[in-house]
Amino acid sequence: ASAPVDDVKPVGQKIRVTAPGSRGLYDAVVSTMPLPRLVRMLEAPREILSAADRLQFRNTVLVYLLVEGRD
Known about the structure:
alpha+beta, three-stranded antiparallel sheet, 2 helices, 21% helix, flat
């Protein structure tokens, strides 16, 4: 499921994800947030934060269409 995320933190071999009204531990996550934001949430070392802040990226917009009708 997709949801806004407030926090992402490593906890041992798991990943704790906190979203409005929920928190969970996961073996793996798929993130679509900008990498610099994710790296800041992970509290990476200063060198990694600096490198992430220099990354250039484009936002991705996904559009899903449901077309009803005959095959």
